[in-house]
Amino acid sequence: MPGKASVAEQIALLEKGADRIEPRSELRRKVERSIASGAPLRVKVGFDPSAPDLHLGHTVVMRKMRHFQQLGHEVWFVIGDFTGMIGDPTGRSKTRPQLTPEQIRENAETYKAQVFRILDPDRTVVAFNSTWLSELGSAGLIRLASRYTVARMLERDDFRRRFRKEQAISIHEFLYPLAQAYDSVAMKADFELGGTDQLFNLLVGRHIMREYDLPPQAVLTMPLLMGLSGPDKMSKSLGNAVGVTDPPDQMFGRLMSISDDRMIHYATLLTDRAPGEIEALESGLADGSIHPKRAKQELAVSIVSDFHSPTEARAARDRFEAVFARGGVPEEMPTHRAESPVRLLDVLADSGLVRSRAEGRRLLRQGAVWFAGQRAPGDVTVPVPAEGAVLRAGKRRFLRVEREPPPP
Amino acid sequence: MPGKASVAEQIALLEKGADRIEPRSELRRKVERSIASGAPLRVKVGFDPSAPDLHLGHTVVMRKMRHFQQLGHEVWFVIGDFTGMIGDPTGRSKTRPQLTPEQIRENAETYKAQVFRILDPDRTVVAFNSTWLSELGSAGLIRLASRYTVARMLERDDFRRRFRKEQAISIHEFLYPLAQAYDSVAMKADFELGGTDQLFNLLVGRHIMREYDLPPQAVLTMPLLMGLSGPDKMSKSLGNAVGVTDPPDQMFGRLMSISDDRMIHYATLLTDRAPGEIEALESGLADGSIHPKRAKQELAVSIVSDFHSPTEARAARDRFEAVFARGGVPEEMPTHRAESPVRLLDVLADSGLVRSRAEGRRLLRQGAVWFAGQRAPGDVTVPVPAEGAVLRAGKRRFLRVEREPPPP
Predict the structure, then answer these.
(1) Complex ipTM, two decimals?
(2) Cross-chain CB nearest to B174 (options A138, A171, A179)
């Protein structure tokens, strides 16, 4: 398989969009060797099982993994269940809660369901790093720890900053980068992929492989994806994210909210368009020969298609268009039945139009809820007209509320 | 048992000669609690199994352990076989070679044979820390490492010095103090004893016990024993040591070579004399009312008695005296038979008068070998007189060489 594309073609595809390749020279060398031997490259990517909901930011690296797969290489999807089982023993970190084996299994299944929207299951190995890290034992872990120095570990940006500021660093925090580096040893990785912020950790993997007398992996980092708006990277907690499992309409609508600038960034990192096409888009937008809204629609259709079908993506676009054409009310919307009079907060929450009662309460407080053409003045209970009425939350969420006949 | 001596008596004996007790207040509290409950205190001391030959320097801490035993307390002799099995994985340290389980067992036996010259076997538990440290596993070791910070570990003198000088510190070096601290957790130590240079490590034990919700151990350090001469602590590699298994004559002779100053130091750390007796000795030596040589003989007899019997110790003293009386040649000495002419180097090595041919060669080169009253001019072969002759190596090693009849 790896023999089909030429060395130059492989390098061009793999380099596309990458932030850094370390060391640069090894990309060519590894690809050449793979073509010569007929053996696919083994590409590692690690995932933290404590937060199984992926957003588009995570897909940037996965898309690069898919490029490797398209060239016939083998992707190892390493789930960091070992550290997940330990959690943060100091209890200081919310991002590293201790998970039960049951939770880890569930999260892994959620993960897989999401990543296989992008990756080719036949060229993906899903591995749990507890397999080899538990087996290491305390003696093995000490041997591993002997292969890296305190000074080098303190060169990592966040450690250096905390050390200078005299903020506590627990010694086990030095062991996590080593443990994930050992993953590369155990699976004999040729490449490891990650976000730009992972560069240090990936290079530790390279160093540790050498210490275990293995040819060191090369490292490829991808830029971090910016959020829908604002200066931050995409993050669920900042509310600027699009979830991989979001329904087509929601995905499409949110993608249509980005600025023209961000469009180029998303086209680069969230599609397989060639660099030339991206440049054409950029200059077309600049000289006015391309209409931004149309370009944004095309981009959104392309992204939604990756996670749903092209048919669903186009349908989402058409519904979005129809809403605009008719002053903002879509033709089709879900229906919810309620007895009259009804508390709007109950409808919002029970119908799933909002994610939580808290969100419903917030929208009501902000005056972002309309019912039967009227803005709701707060958390109110109102009559449902005999013919039903449209409930709207925020800009794009609509619900038809029908009157439930009272119980006999 | 712990009830026999009063709190004040116990404290007086345990404080004697100690360098530091941390925290001071807990000595009294722990002793009181032991008397009240009738439960003996559990006293930990750790030993490195990579160098099983003990010298008098090691016995300073053991003597303190014996004091605990004399008061009815329980001594845990923890053999650090876990770290011994790992060795220094970087291969940089000569003092931490990797040992086989077989070597560790042998060294442990050697240890026991030596320590039971001082300790009461009935109140001594011999434990191997691999029992609990191997069981910890990689996850347990990470949890342990989470209980201590990088900054605190870097406060240890040697780490701080190396860090400042930008000398490499491997991360596993941070794990060893934690592993030995975990020994205290596993055995629920009330006290840990060690040399002054161990203070930091012992206090880590105290900290870690607290982290594992155990009442923290108190820590008692003993001063380091100076060598026979010079400004260094006693150390086999510096050649200023007296081995615990050295024969009585050798032990006695070497102890007689110390200076008057060191006599006070040795009397304090190598005998059970009360502080008043030591002061009396010191002032007696100062005002000339005590003869230094006689005092030194008494001290040497007392020390040799601890490792051999008082009878053997006195016999060694008498032989030493006789040598002096007769211009330096002892009355009794071992006999060795050799054909004439004989190469002196062969006699030295074959008879065991020197430890190795290398040492024999060195002594011959230095002109420190006499045969039949003549200084040997080097590595020579000489006739053996019909009546035999005395071979002398250095100051105190003598051998009677008799002529072997030639083979028939």
Answers:
(1) 0.74
(2) A171
Lowest mean pLDDT among A28-37, A45-54, A274-283, B353-362: A45-54
Residue B89 near chain A (CB below 8 Å): yes
Query: Do A168 and B146 count as a contact with CB atoms less than 8 A apart?
Result: no
Helix B248-255 and helix B310-325, axial crossing angle in degrees, nearest 10: 60
Contact B185, B143 (CB under 8 A): no
pLDDT of residue B316: 92
pLDDT given for residue B81 in this prediction: 87
Residue B372 CB-density burial (10 A; 0-12 exposed, 13-18 middle, 19+ buried): middle
Cβ of B139 within 8 Å of Cβ of A134? The answer is yes
pTM value is: 0.75
Q: What is the pLDDT of residue A195?
A: 92
Interface contact flag, A134 B133, Cβ < 8 Å:
no
- Whether residue A95 has pLDDT greater than 70: no
| Helix axes A130-145 and B130-145, enclosed angle (nearest 10) | 90
Q: Does B134 touch chain A (CB under 8 A)?
A: yes
In whole angstroms, give the CA distance from residue B210 to residue B356.
51
CA distance B182 to B209: 7
Judged against a pLDDT cut of 80, whether residue B183 lies above it is answered with yes
- The pLDDT tens digits for A229-238 are 888 899 877 7
Query: Among B138, B155, B166, B176, which would you mutate to test the A interface (most chain A Cβ atoms within 10 Å of its Cβ)?
Result: B138
CA atoms within 13 A on the CB side of B398: 18
Placement of tokens 């793979």 in the chain: A34
Provide CB contacts within 8 A for A79, sequence distance 6+: A46, A47, A49, A104, A108, A111, A126, A127, A128, A129
pLDDT of residue B333: 79
Nearest by CB: B149 against A89, A139, A170: A170
d(CA A377, CA A159): 50
